[in-house]
Amino acid sequence: MTSAASGTTDPLHSPVVRLVRVSEHAAAAAAPGAQAPLSAEERERAAKFVLQADRDRYLVAHLALREELGRLLGLAPQDVPFTRADCPVCDGPHGRPSVPGDPVHFSLSHAGDLVALAFAAAPIGVDVEQYPSVAAAIQTTSALHPSEQVELAALAPDALPAAFARCWTRKEAYLKGTGSGLGEDPALTYVSALDRPARVPGWQLTDLTVPDGYAAASALRQTGARGEGADAERADVPSPAESPTESATGSPTGGGPGESEPG
After folding, report:
1. What is the spatial distance between Cα 205 and Cα 191, in angstroms, rounded to a whole number?
2. Which of 118, 237, 229 has the alpha carbon at shortest distance from 173?
3. If you classify domain 16-221 with CATH, what class do you get?
4. Any bridge partners for residue 110, and if so which?
5. Does an H or E element contain 10, and which?
6. Tens of pLDDT, residue by residue, the chain (263 residues)
């Protein structure tokens, strides 16, 4: 595994993000006995995938998650317990996956050949996506914040897939961090489709370095901070008279599920 957060190994002092190549670990994950650390529910879910590529991605992701959490918690991977926080949208028991007592917060995402894992002392979300086609980006843009739609509409078609993926991963990471997921309208919170993430009160959005053809981002809750959802929309949104270029110069770089299951 490789780290996208250079020099960070302790999530209690700095968020740790790890990237895993599915193709480098799929054979080991499928070997006899390799799936023993997984719960019966996880093994059952893996067995239901029709495509081998989907099964490989799931197994590599969940084995890596248990391995990392076990190391951080001083537990065997199979002994890592999972629960769910209450959903902040409806208060149901299907919110952000967590470890009881939250000794460490985590998030998991996977797409294509990449798995992204994030760990921190505070709530964190991570998302990785492959670039969509131009047609798919155009079709999905209407789900975004109005200012993000304006930013994407100003781009040449060949620049749209990367910009859309950049925006979407920031948004997914934030929504996974809050635990809302897509239970919150993705048009509500502005994260920007430009080169640098927008400021979202109470959260630190960071674009992650990933291979060509992918975009990834993390969202870390700032200790003692307040402000999410509708309040976050007002943080860094360009005014109607402000062009995307002008907005880019005023948007500072963020410092420093997707899946909704454990991982």
Report:
1. 8
2. 118
3. alpha beta
4. 115
5. none
6. 443 343 345 676 678 999 999 999 999 999 999 999 999 999 999 999 999 999 999 999 999 999 999 999 999 999 999 998 877 777 777 778 899 999 999 999 999 999 999 999 999 999 999 999 999 999 999 999 999 999 999 999 999 999 999 999 999 999 999 988 878 899 999 999 999 999 999 999 999 999 999 999 999 999 765 544 434 444 567 654 443 333 322 222 233 333 545 54
